[in-house]
Write a structure and sequence with these properties.
Structural class: mainly beta
Distance between the termini: 49 Å
Shape: globular
Number of domains: 1
Strand order of the largest sheet: 4-5-6-8-9-10-11-12
Low-confidence stretches: 1-19
Radius of gyration: 21 Å
Number of strands: 13
Oligomer: single chain
Length: about 180
């Protein structure tokens, strides 16, 4: 019996019979594309201007995620605001506001059905001097073929701490 030669090139399998080959996409390619929030996601602005790091206002925002695969387990994520609702003040920030400017430029690391979201953030020493950029985790999400669910939470502390967050597992986008 003659053996049929098989050549394996990445995820493409070539044989003279073309049988038994199945092409699978990497996790990054599976979630690449455009995702939108089915409902507004509430973003809470936070500040330590009064001494404690607290939520001082909330704003509902409908968002779009544009996800681009970098390699099998890494993606770039751009989060854009489609509609920004009315901001509600929850507490005082003692004059030390946080800002949330769209679009957000983030990076994602995929492991199985988990998406860890990071951003490049300036780091500071105890004297307040900038020491350089570092990749900081700002979100943790689970995903299926048509749903990404998780939490965003960013905190930056150059002089005082300020940032934003969503409620736990309340940041949802669908394909």
């Amino acid at each position: 019996m003659r053996k049929i030669p098989t050549i394996l090139l990445g995820c493409v399998c070539l044989t003279t019979l073309y049988s038994g080959c199945k092409k699978t996409l990497s996790p990054a390619r599976n979630i690449s594309g455009t995702w939108t929030s089915p409902a507004a996601v509430t973003f809470y602005m936070m500040s330590a201007g009064c001494g404690s790091y607290v939520r001082y206002n909330s704003t509902p925002v409908t968002i779009t995620w544009t996800i681009t695969a970098i390699d099998d387990n890494n993606v770039d994520i751009v989060i854009s605001a489609n509609k920004i609702g009315t901001t509600t003040q929850l507490a005082s920030n003692c004059g030390q506001p946080a800002t949330l400017v769209f679009p957000l430029q983030l990076h994602g690391i995929i492991s199985s059905s988990n998406l860890q979201v990071t951003e490049q953030q300036m780091q500071y020493n105890n004297a307040g001097a900038a020491t350089g950029l570092a990749s900081v985790v700002v979100g943790n999400f689970n995903f299926t073929t048509n749903n990404i669910t998780g939490t965003l939470s960013e905190k930056d502390c150059p002089i005082y701490c300020a940032g934003y967050q969503t409620d736990t597992n309340a940041c949802i986008v669908t394909k």
